[in-house]
Amino acid sequence: xxxxxxxxxxxxxxxxxxxxxxxxxxxxxxxxxxxxxxxxxxxxxxxxxxxxxxxxxxxxxxxxxxxxxxxxxxxxxxxxxxxxxxxxxxxxxxxxxxxx
Amino acid sequence: xxxxxxxxxxxxxxxxxxxxxxxxxxxxxxxxxxxxxxxxxxxxxxxxxxxxxxxxxxxxxxxxxxxxxxxxxxxxxxxxxxxxxxxxxxxxxxxxxxxxxxxxxxxxxxxxxxxxxxxxxxxxxxxxxxxxxxxxxxxxxxxxxxxxxxxxxxxxxxxxxxxxxxxxxxxxxxxxxxxxxxxxxxxxxxxxxxxxxxxxxxxxxxxxxxxxxxxxxxxxxxxxxxxxxxxxxxxxxxxxxxxxxxxxxxxxxxxxxxxxxxxxxxxxxxxxxxxxxxxxxxxxxxxxxxxxxxxxxxxxxxxxxxxxxxxxxxxxxxxxxxxxxxxxxxxxxxxxxxxxxxxxxxxxxxxxxxxxxxxxxxxxxxxxxxxxxxxxxxxxxxxxxxxxxxxxxxxxxxxxxxxxxxxxxxxxxxxxxxxxxxxxxxxxxxxxxxxxxxxxxxxxxxxxxxxxxxxxxxxxxxxxxxxxxxxxxxxxxxxxxxxxx
Lengths: 100, 485
Prior knowledge:
The complex is a heterodimer. Chain A is mainly α. Chain A has helices at about 5-25, 30-55, 55-85. Chain A is about 80% helix and about 0% strand. The radius of gyration of chain A is 17 Å and the shape is elongated. Chain B has a domain at about 265-485. Chain B has 19 helices and 2 strands. Chain B has a two-stranded antiparallel sheet. In chain B, helix 1 (about 10-30) runs antiparallel to helix 4, helix 3 crosses helix 19 (about 470-485) and helix 10 (about 230-260) runs parallel beside helix 12 (about 295-315). The mean pLDDT of chain B is about 85. The interface of A and B includes residues 68 and 92 of A.
């Protein structure tokens, strides 16, 4: 059996890549994809722990998390599309009507 | 397997059912008044049922995910009051917009999410409730979709909110790995005992993730932008509703373990919360000094209020929890009232700059007087509600733990009291604009009844709780005891 540390390492790397992307990328769609990466990193953790503990709660959590992530993307893409319609860009650095 | 007792979560189910019913009804009848009234009726019905549950003293657990006790009943009621205030303010505010059915449905769904968090006793319950509220409020912020400011605010809120979701979920997953359970009781045991490195990482993730929701500095930058871009009723909802939900989630995850361990050790995390609380209230108040937009001023003031509430997580005694709950209740009326006045003035297209409020006392005496009361209550001027709740909250630090730790949080109270004094300056500045400065026109302002109803409700609550706080403190005592039981 693959040891638990492998799964945790994989999820930590995924999480770090996602966090890096959220902080550095300019395009709103890419940022949304990076957030998905981070959510899936957490899901890997849950599944690994659930298999390791022989406990079903972790798997239930993942199903919930996937449903939530899908809803978030549905709303998120709609909001980005609306931004594109009103300001003609999805670049997060170009939107600065609101500050201080 | 026995059939679960759905009557325990009936208040939530009523609100959820209305959230599903309203868009359909609106689609069939195209009657925006009807959609608003049905939503209002659902919130009132849910509140009445909740009142009955409180009187009967109903307690129980729904499938081990949602618990009904004094704490969850009080908080559920508080969130229903928030929904009622926001609905009253919305009835007129959205009448010139399209898609009323969706607006009310999103508002009700967000309310149901907050109510679910209030009674969650499992990480899954907290996560799903928080997300139901968050995702609904992203869409609510974007509601006026042709307004570029709303579009920008919604994108900012979405990105920040998504990041906070990811951090929270990762924190939950590590918490599950350390404790092998998703139930809050098991997690409290783990936090109360000697923590491991993984537990520290997961707690740090949760503080960051939920810190976004409660606008802790340095995770607060989104709040003024979003409040400014959103319509005023939605800003009210975010400031007094969804922020309280973040606090409830933090209390549920951290506080029980902290308080249980208080007798032996003070957790390092409590020091972290103390420092965060001090920074949050100071930054919020100091940046608020230079604001010229009323919504942004209130946003920074509500960041400062979040700092006061975070003191509860640092001090972590039952007394502090009572003070925290009490301050949450009074904050709903003070901040809610102030925001609804801004909403009312936006509705009659008065603008939201501070200079637009010049001479308001002559043009709308009742509105100006209510604003004065709410702002002074927020600053903590006696005999208003804000004074009493701040008094209970701050005094918990002085008189707190057992002899061996006596007085270690005194410095935090000093910071908080000095901050209250700073805040009085910018609240008084608004009052000066309203009462001393001359208006450009003497034209009287008339505000629709639904706004007045919400404002008067807040006004009565702020003054009544200030003069006679015992019943509310009793409720908070019972709730704190139930949370820590």
